[in-house]
Amino acid sequence: MSAPITVRDISADEHLAWLQTQPSASFLQTPAWGDVKTDWRHESIGWFDGETMVGAALVLHRSLPKVGRSLAYLPEGPCIAWDSPRLVELLRALRDHLKAKGAFALRIGPPVPTHRWQAPTIKAAISDPATTRYDQATPDVVEPVGTSVVETLRRLGFKHLSPEDGFSAGQPEYVFQVPLAGRSEADLLAGMNQLWRRNIKKTQKNGVTVRIGDASDIGTFHRVYLETAERDRFTPRGVEYFERMYRVMSSEDPDRIRVYLAEHEGDVLAATVFIRVGEHAWYSYGASTAAKRELQGSTAIQWQMMRDALAAGATTYDLRGITNTVAEDNPHIGLIRFKVGTGGEAVRLAGEWDLPLNRVLYAAFDLYMKRR
Q1: How far is CA 52 from CA 18, 89, 278, 280, 361, in A?
Q2: Which residue, of 99, 153, 165, 309, has the greatest Cβ tally within 10 A?
Q3: What topology is assigned to 181-314 in CATH?
Q4: What phi-psi label fits residue 129: left (phi over 0), alpha (psi between -120 and 50 degrees) or beta?
């Protein structure tokens, strides 16, 4: 007979050691990420089958004012075996542990795919006026594990958060990924559309160079990022955030985070933040200048990051979130076309789910976040 699954606090070192035994995990589930998110209290927890660790998670806590009870949030986590026949037991052990610690609600974001749309399917959907969203297009792949996880969460009383819902923390449900497993650089190039291949050749012909920076280049990245924020009308993060992210993630693993800069004759054309945990690599932040856009600095930097991810043994290159739209009149369609040109695929994840542990406090917190 199996021992009962238990959850208990673990040290950051124990957490990191366990993650290093896994093929990958989200960078949002590394101990270092807790040190990046200074506006949340954080802790590491582990699942145990007897004395054997079978899972780990970074838990971020946001407290209700004056009450001392918290929302316990596991962004893109926990890192457990989502195909386990004991999944219900794993989730109930998590619930009980966090409830005993004073959490009024549990929020998780299972990093498991449910549906995939490949590049030809996306292109056809964009050209079809009757199709305006991914979930209106027939997926190329329906993932059985992800589908089962969603059913299990519903059965256990979890509530699915759409991006429009109240105080959703906002990790993307739809992402764009380029599969790398078993592929060479030549395979990657062959999978791209003609425009991407032509632009890669153009960057080489025009003398655009891409280099990996260090901590001293964060300021340069941030200047380009501020220009991008003004142009694209989003609220930028301060430079201190990126300095802290680079410092704490590099301290945890020197290969975890990189800054890339695309340059031409002394001018910075584009700058990005690249993150890798095991076999998963992310294009996390990107920025570009308005100057010399015809030289395709953003294309050059993406191609270099893909090649480096492949060389490091990554099986997935992740361009992070996309909106659930394929409508030609959507303002994001240019970005979608840029990503589709890589030959990758749109992936729907299980999304974020809340389990209220105290319904009165959960409702009060929802109201508080909406009024902020």
Answers
A1: 11, 15, 22, 25, 35
A2: 309
A3: Aminopeptidase (3.40.630)
A4: alpha
The yes or no reply on domain 5-110+350-371 and CATH 3.40.630.30 is yes
DSSP tag of 28: G
DSSP state of 128: -
SS3 122: helix
For the full predicted model, state whether its pTM sits above 0.85.
yes
pLDDT at 167: 45
**For position 26, what pLDDT does the model report?**
97
Task: Name the token pair of 64.
Answer: 């209700």
Residue 146 belongs to what H/E stretch?
helix 144-155
**CA 26 – CA 333 distance, rounded (Å):** 27
Q: Which residues contact 198 (CB under 8 A, 6 or more apart)?
A: none
Burial of 265 (0-12, 13-18, 19+ CB in 10 A): exposed
Q: How far apart are CA 19 and CA 36, in angstroms?
A: 18
**Rounded-to-integer distance, Cα 108 and Cα 94, Å:** 10
Mind listing the pLDDT tens digit for each residue in 90-101?
999 999 999 999
Tokens of 37: 């998110």
Query: Are residues 19 and 30 in contact, defined by beta-carbon separation less than 8 angstroms?
Result: yes
pLDDT score at 166: 42
Instruction: Mark the ranges of the chain whose per-residue pLDDT is less than 50.
Output: 165-168
- C-alpha span between 177 and 272 (Å, rounded): 17
| DSSP notation for 150-165 | HHHHHHTT-EEEPTTS
